[in-house]
Amino acid sequence: MNGDKKRKTIKTIKVDVDKCNGCQACEAVCSAFHATPKYSSINPARSRIRVIREPLKDIYIPVYAGDYTKAECTGRETYTINGKEYSECSFCRVACPTRDIFKEPDSGLPLKCDMCEGEEGGPLCVQWCVALALTYEEREEEVEEEVDREELEIGLESLVNEYGLEKIMDSVARMSMKD
Amino acid sequence: MRYAETGYNLEIDLSRGSIERAETDPGLTKLHLGGLGTNTKIMWDRVPPEVEPFSPDNLLIFSAGLLCGTCAPGCNRTIVTTISPQTSLMAFSMAGGFWAKELKYAGLDKVIIRGKSPDLVYLWINNDKVEIRDASHFHGKGALETAALIQEELKEPRAEVASIGLAGENRVYFASIELGKSSASRGGCGAIMGDKKIKAIAVRGTKDVNIARPVEFFELCNGVMKKLRDDTDKLTPEAQRGFVDLYSWGSPATLKEDDDSFHYDNFSWGNARYRRKGYWNEEVERKQVEIKKELRERQVSCYNCPVRCTGAISLPGEQRFFLKCSGYTYVIAAELEGSLGYRIWNVHNEYGMDGYSTPQVCAFALELYENGIFTDDDMAGMPSDKEDRFIWLVHKIARREGIGDVLADGIYWAARQIGKGAEIYAQNTIKKNEQLPLKLGMLNPAYFLMYCTGEKLTITQMEGQFPQTPLPTREEREAHVKDWVQVPDEKFKQYFLDWNPRGENSNPYYPDIEATCEIVDWQEKMHYIDDCTGMCAGLSSFVMKPPYHIHNIPTLISSATGMDMDKAELWEIITRNRTLLRAFNIRRGMRRKDEKPPKDHWKKRFPELEEKLLDEYYKFKGWDNDGIPIKETLNKLGLDYVSEDLLQRGILADKEDTSSRETAGEKEKK
Known about the structure:
The complex is a heterodimer. By secondary structure, chain A is α+β, with helices and mostly antiparallel strands. Helix content of chain A is 25%, strand content 25%. In chain A, strand 5 and strand 6 form a beta hairpin. The two termini of chain A are 31 Å apart. By secondary structure, chain B is an alpha+beta fold. Chain B has three domains: 197 residues, Aldehyde ferredoxin oxidoreductase, N-terminal domain (Aldehyde Ferredoxin Oxidoreductase,  A, domain 1); 194 residues, Orthogonal Bundle (Aldehyde Ferredoxin Oxidoreductase Protein, subunit A, domain 2); 229 residues, Aldehyde Ferredoxin Oxidoreductase Protein, subunit A, domain 3 (Orthogonal Bundle). Chain B has 26 helices and 22 strands. The interface between A and B is large, with 31 and 43 residues. Strand 2 of chain A pairs antiparallel with strand 13 of chain B.
């Protein structure tokens, strides 16, 4: 069954590493915004955006926190771009066991960027990036729902195969009656 | 809980190898704020006047400013304090960068070092864990090279490192301490670090800095950031990618990206000898732009600051280095044309030396050679190319080889050791410290006082919000004062409005003596505030219309720290700090006789007026006619222990009402 299309808002922070001045204002303001109470403390170690800085190699990469993963990558590649050698980790947004960024310093719990939910002017790191290395973009995209549908169908089908259609329908009916 | 500050200092005794994390007295924050203020208090309490610069009893204090590590944009300075080997007075050298905030996040406000280590060591502060580690394998390594090696050795790329190069190790009197892209250069703090045999201090911190009134404080910071953003948007694209960039915004020199005629046409070339008005032309500009485009990779900033004041420069096959707008000093001293002196700077930076003093010392050496005081033997091996011979001199000085050994003590001391009339050529120092090569025509009364009485010994750390010259027409001056919210009092607008470039109401008799005292006091106080908070002068005291000024700084400090404070109270704290620092240097022997600019600083001098200016300014400050703070001044500021000490030492005479006269100006400020 070929899916309906759904409109979805995609929020992204675009990063222009050439413009980064390495000031880490993004880190300071991020940690302030997410402090409890709001703005009550500053600590870049709690920031959901970090600047990977290697001044002697002219490397400045702001990277904001994505998902958490339990596993570390098997290999860590290096890329040479315009004569500068980068570790692929420098571009990676994941909170992972191999490095200390995007983890609460006390608890070790992973941190994830929430685009400063509730902040009127958009993410504060972007607002505080006068060098314009960070820009915020919201775009509407039509998303195929096909993929989700297929996954669900595949799962259901395997259940039906195992338990029979009737049992599955009974179960679904019972489940839907619970609150 | 302590707010804005951490409430802890690290006390290190290198002779005994002891390390102690000591809680500080919050009462001292109320009296002196932090940074330079509390550094001065510690120096007064613990460093008696007999202590020589290279004594183990001399302290070397690294302090973060009170507001470093908070959200306040541009607040990132480290204030280094010690006794200068050059002047034997208190050196207070500041640097931006990233070190101060890291110290705060490690839960510390200051690192206080006394004693001397037997072997070369470095300090590793990792939150609460502090180690003194062997640094013998870093002996002779460059400053930034050492920092990178330490990060590697510790496997801690986020450690921030303050380090010295060979110049510091060799106790060159004008050696700097390098903090990544920035340096604490003035006063020879690097020589003291080298004398104590401490190659570097590496810091890493992951703790919170707390704010007392978060919303109020954040709104202020956010407002400043918004203003900076709006001001950047107004700049041309050329200025935005600029070397000086936002720095140009409202600065006294209104520096522009490509047009640097201000420095090249106005500063004196060689050993501060001759101006080259009209040197700058389209061809020079084109060449400079070309070099910069080729070699400058990026404009970078210090922590939490949008002003891209520093160029990251990459020479083919060499390590990258960082240079601020002060890059012209070598070009002018070495008389380089068609070069920006980048090759020299790279050598200079790794040795770790002061960018104002070193070119002057080299130019002085060449002048001695040209005048037969240094012989061919002295200069054996010197190349002929102008840039190469400066590089040769820089090597000699940093390594203390041959004539480099005597030159490494700075112009003042070198001239006295060389003799043979060398003193005549040592003509651009104040209080034994090399000055920027500025030689001008007509005496400017405010600048006269700043040069004489300023104990920071660098004019860019004294001047600021009041313009150095009047605008040509009244209309322009009217336009200037319209949005001049930074003035502490409306009368300053009038002083500026009535100030003509020539004729009636012009220098040297206008601004009049009273107005001049007020102007100088205001300029100086703004810098002393910044040195306590850790704010960069580039967003505050050095520029004419900065986002931080006397009207919003008190709220910034109160909301961050929770200490309620208005303008008058802040003014009193700063007066206390300034007076205590004065008293410290007075106790070390500084007097009126030391307070004079180089003879030829201005072509037109006015001895009588100059004496009068000093007389009145001292009175204005509550100092006696020799520049010594009088008992009443000290006691009024709660510095009774200082007046008692000065009385005991016979520096102050114990008589009632010693010509104490509070001037109208001082009263109004309160």
